[in-house]
Amino acid sequence: VTPECLAHNFTNEGGVGGTTRLLKNLCGLWIVQQCRASWQRSGKNWGWDQLTALAAESAPLQTIIDSSHPSLVAPNDMPAAIQELAKQSKQPIPESTGAVIRTALESVAAKVSQTLQELDELIGRRIGRVHIVGGGVQNKLLCQMIADASNRPVIAGPVEATAIGNLLVQILAENGKIDLRSVRSVVRDSFDPITYEPQSVAAWKERLAECVGR
C-alpha cells in the first residue's frame, strides 16, 4: 500500500486463492435503511419501493452531502442528521420524505464517483465499468445514479451474491480440479445482470464540480 493509497483510505484485502484486492469501504444504503427505521419509530411504515418512488419524483441534484461523514454512522434520527449536514454545507435542506431519500441516494452515488476517480489515479488507468452485487442492485434508481455520476456503465447483479460466493468457494475447496476462473465463469453463465448506461452525465458533472471542497 502506497502513501497515496493510505491518504485516500484504501487498503489491501486478501481473497480466495491468494488473491488481493485494493479496497475502500463506503457507506451505502445504510443511510436509507436508517431513515426508514427513524420514520417507522414515528409510525410511518414506508416500503422500500415507496421510498424509491418518492425519491424518483423529487427534484434531482439539489443537495449532495458527504455520505461517509461521521455524523451519519449512528445518529438517533438519520433524516435530521442529513438535514443538518445540508444546513452546514449551505445547501437546500431536504424537507419531504422523497427529498431526504433522494439526497441520500445521490450522495452515495457522488461518493462512489469520487472514489472511482481516486482509484483511477492510484492504478494509473481508468476503470471502464462498475459492478454492483448484493441487495443494492434492487434499487434501480441508485444504480442509474451511479452510472450517471461516474460516467461509466453499471452492471448490476446477482442479488444473492454473498450466498452464491459462499457456495462456490466451498465447491472450490472440495474440488481440486476447479479453479477460481472456472467458478467466476459459472456466475457469468448463470445470471443475467442489468446494465445501466450513463445518461444525465453533464448535469452530474456540473453539480459535482460545485461540491468540490464543500
Topology of helices and strands:
Elements: H1 3-7, E1 11-14, E2 20-23, H2 30-41, H3 48-57, H4 78-88, H5 97-123, E3 130-132, H6 140-150, E4 154-156, H7 161-174, H8 180-190, E5 194-196, H9 201-211
Parallel strand pairs: 3-4
Antiparallel strand pairs: 1-2, 4-5
Helix pairs in contact: 3-5, 5-6, 6-9
Q: What this model shows, in words?
A:
By secondary structure, the protein is mostly helical. It has a domain at 3-128: ATPase, nucleotide binding domain (Nucleotidyltransferase, domain 5, 2-Layer Sandwich). Helices cover 52% and strands 8% of the residues. The protein is built from nine helices and five strands. The protein has helices at residues 3-7, 30-41, 48-57, 78-88, 97-123, 140-150, 161-174, 180-190, 201-211, and strands at residues 11-14, 20-23, 130-132, 154-156, 194-196. The strands form two sheets. The protein has a three-stranded mixed beta sheet, with helices on one face. Strands 1-2 form a two-stranded antiparallel sheet. α6 (140-150) packs across α9. The longest helix has 27 residues, at 97-123. The protein is globular. The mean pLDDT is 96.
Features:
214 residues, mainly alpha, Nucleotidyltransferase, domain 5, three-stranded mixed β-sheet, two-stranded antiparallel ribbon, 9 helices, 52% helix, globular
- In CATH, what is the class of the domain at 3-128? Alpha Beta
List unreliable stretches of 5+ residues: none
User: What name does the CATH topology of the domain at 3-128 carry?
Assistant: Nucleotidyltransferase, domain 5
**Global outline:** globular
Fraction in helix:
40-55%
In the CATH hierarchy, what is the superfamily of the domain at 3-128?
ATPase, nucleotide binding domain
